[in-house]
Fold PLP-dependent aminotransferase family protein.
Amino acid sequence: MSRPSSRIDSVIHAVRSRISSRLDGPGSRLPSVRTQATTMGVSVSTVVEAYERLAAEGVIAARAGSGFYVTGPAAPLALAEMEPRLDRAVDPLWVSRQSLETPPGHLKPGCGWMPSDWLYHDGLRRGLRRMARADAAHLVDYAGPLGLPALRQTLQRRAATLGIEASMEQLLLAESGTHAVDLICRFLLKPGDCVLVDDPSYFNYHAMLKAHQVQAIGVPYTHTGPDLEVFASALQEHAPRLYITNAGLHNPTGAVLSATTAHRLLGLAERSELIIIEDDIFADFELRPAPRLAALDGLSRVIHVGSFSKAISAASRCGYIAARPDWIEALTDLKLATSFGGGHLAAHLMQIALTDSGYRRHMQAVRTRLADARKHTLRQVQKLGITPWLQPEAGLFLWCQLPDGRDASAVARLCLREGVVVAPGNAFSQSQKAADYVRFNVSQCQDPKIWQVLGKALATNAPRSHA
Amino acid sequence: MSRPSSRIDSVIHAVRSRISSRLDGPGSRLPSVRTQATTMGVSVSTVVEAYERLAAEGVIAARAGSGFYVTGPAAPLALAEMEPRLDRAVDPLWVSRQSLETPPGHLKPGCGWMPSDWLYHDGLRRGLRRMARADAAHLVDYAGPLGLPALRQTLQRRAATLGIEASMEQLLLAESGTHAVDLICRFLLKPGDCVLVDDPSYFNYHAMLKAHQVQAIGVPYTHTGPDLEVFASALQEHAPRLYITNAGLHNPTGAVLSATTAHRLLGLAERSELIIIEDDIFADFELRPAPRLAALDGLSRVIHVGSFSKAISAASRCGYIAARPDWIEALTDLKLATSFGGGHLAAHLMQIALTDSGYRRHMQAVRTRLADARKHTLRQVQKLGITPWLQPEAGLFLWCQLPDGRDASAVARLCLREGVVVAPGNAFSQSQKAADYVRFNVSQCQDPKIWQVLGKALATNAPRSHA
C-alpha cells in the first residue's frame, strides 16, 4: 500500500502531466477536489494537499468559490545561466563569473574553492538538524547589532591562539569575508583615495576597489611578503590610506609573511598612518601559523577579518571583523544602515560547526588531502613545462608560469571552450605583469582531462615573440 | 544505564566544574585520557570525545605529545550587549539599535518585526530538516551570480500575480531587502545626489542614504501616496536621481498607494528621468494587492525589491531585485565585487518555505491575528488619548499622534528606562515634523505593561508650550 505522501505526489504528477502535455493550458479549470479524488481513488484531503502544494508553487491558483485554475506556464531557465560567457573580457570578475556560472561537468582548476565533498558538509548537516529543533527565536529573529555572542566568543578564542587579543566589543560579524572588507572600505575610503594591494593578489579586491572608485597600487609580492622597498616608495609617492593583504597563506601565491617582513612592514605603516586589512580566510589551512600583523599591532591600525567559506561552507555565509572598539562601533552602525541584521541562522550554523568535535579532524584530513593533491598537481604542471613560482607548504594554490611567455588569457579562453576554467594571471595582477601566469587550485586538479585540454591549448597557442 | 552521549557530557561537566571552581586554572594539565577514564568509570573513547569537544570550544587545548591543558578563561559577555544605550541620540538608527539590543524581557511595541512565534518557524524547521539531507553541493557551494534559479522562478511567479512581468534574467537575489536597496544605491548614486523619500518613511532609508552621502528630501505622505504637488515641485527644485518608497503597505503609516496616484506619480517620474525603488517587503500582509509601480511601468524605470524577513524569517536572510536586464547585469557584477556569492543555503530555505503548502495558511492566520491585534491596539491607544493618523486595513503598523503635542523622543526615553522600546516619530521623518508621533507595531502590543508604562510616561512628560 502506498504511503500518503506518495498518493499526494501521484495527484501532483497527474496535474503536471496534463499541463506539460498541453491537455490543460493556462486558465483551464482543474477537476473539483471531489471529482479528482473519485477519479484517482484517493481521499479528498490528499487532493486538497496536492492542490495546495501546486498552488504554493504557483502552477495553479485558487479563485474564490470557483476552484483551481492553471496559471501561465513557467518560463524556461535562461540560457545565460547555463552557459559560460566566452566573450567576456578578462577583467577582475572574469574568474569569479566563469567559476560560478559553469554548468555541471565543467572542470575548474582555476576556481578559488574546494570541491563540495571536501568541505565540512557533515558538520553542516549536524548543525541543520540541531537548528531544526532550536527555539523559534533562533530561526526567525534578527541578530543583535554585533552578531551572535556565542560565535563571537569562539572567534575570540580562535584569535587568541594566533596572538590576537580582542575583547567581545572588538568583534563584529558580517555576512561574509568579502562583506567585511567592503564595510571597512566604505568606512575608511573616499573616491580618489589610494590603496595598496599585493601584486599579484586576490582578484576580487581589485573589483571591490573599483566599486569604491579608489586607485589600487600593486606592490610586488615576494616569497616572504610584499617587497618592502617598493612598499616604502609607494607610501612616499601615493600616501595610501589602506593596504589590503592576506593573513597567513597568500592568494594566489601560497607564500607567507616572514616575521622580519611583518615587523618592518608594520613599522612603515606606523610612520605613515597607514591602515591595514589582514584577510585571514585561509587560517585553518596552515600547518603552522605565520605571524599575524594584528597580533604584532594589538589591533590598533591593523583590522583582522576572516570567514569560513573555504573551510566549512560557502553556502552558509558568515564573516567577521576584529578591530579597535571605536571603529567597530562605527562599522556596526554602517552594517545596520546597509544590510541591517545579518544572517543569524548562518552564524548559528558556523558556531555549531566550529565547536563540533569533528571539525579539527576534518581540517586535519583536508590538509593531508591538499598535500597529496599539491604533489600530484606539481607533477602534472611540470610535465607540461609549467613552472611553479613557489612550492607552498599549505593551502589550495599553486602560482605558475606558462612556458615560453604564452598568453594565459588566450590559453584560458581555449580551455573554457573545452569545459575547463583556468585562472589567468592578469586577473590577479594590478600591474598586468602576470600575462604568462596562471593560478591552480590543487583540490580541483584531479581530473586528467585538465592536463589534456591544457596541453592542447599550450600547443595551439603560439609563443609570443621574444626580444 | 546511561547513554554514551550523557557519559560524554558528564566528563565535560567534570572538567568544566574544576575550571569554574578554579581547581584547574589556565595552564593546568588535565588528567590523561586513561587516568580520567579510570577515575570516572567510563571508556577511553568517551574521554577522548569529551576532550575533543572541549578543545573544539577552546576551553582546553592539546599540546603535541603532552596531553591537554586548560586555556585562559573566557571573557564575560560585554555589558554593552546586554543593556540598551539610554544615552544614544534619537537618530535614524535609534529604533534599530534599541530594538536589536534590548535584553530578553523588554517589550518592543516600537520594533519593526513580529514576535518570533508569529513567523514561519515551522516552515523553517521543515526546510532545515530537508536541507540536512540535501546534496553536499547545496550545503557548501557558492550560488551562481544571480542566485538560486528555483527561487528566482518562484519569485517570477509571485511577481506575475502582482502584474509584474520579469524574465529570469531580470531577477537577482541579494542578502536581504536592505542589501538589495543598498546595491541599487551604489549602482545609481554618487555623493551629493538628491533622493526623494516619503515623509515619514522607514528610518533605515535615512541611515542608508546618509552612508551614501546623498541628500534625502522628504515628500509628505498622504492616505493615498506621496503628496503629488510637493513631489512635482521637488522634482523641479532638486532634480533628484531616485525616489525610494514602499510597494503596497507603507511603513510607518500603513497607507497604500491609490491607482490614480500611482499613474500620476509614474507620469511625473517619466517626464523627469526619475528612477524609483519600490520596496515590497510587506507583500504577503496585504488583504488585496495595491497597485505596483513596477507593474504599471513594466520594469523600465521602476526597480522592484523585496524580502521575506517580515513574513518568514529574519534569521535566514534573502532579498531580491527585479529590474531592467542591463541594470541587473551591472548589479550582479557589483554584488560579486562587494559580497561575492550570496547565502545559497538561505535561498534554499526560502524557496522551501515559499513553496511549502503550509505557507499560504500561515499567512492567512497571521493576517487574521494582526486584524485582532490592530483592534486591540487601537482601543488601548485611544484610551490614552493617542490618535491614529489612519486605521490601516492590513500590516503591522499604526502611526499615531500623542496628545497635546507631547515630545515622543522624551516619552520614548522614559519608556526605555522601564523596559519598553517605543519608536519616536522623528526617527521616521526627514523634515523632523513628526515630533509628537509614534509608530506602534500591533503584533508587539499584547502586554498590558506597555500601556501602563506609556500612560505613566505621558503623564510625566509635560505638554510642550503652545502658541
About this structure: Residues 80-118+364-460 of chain B form a domain with the Aspartate Aminotransferase, domain 1 fold (CATH 3.90.1150.10). The radius of gyration of chain B is 26 Å.
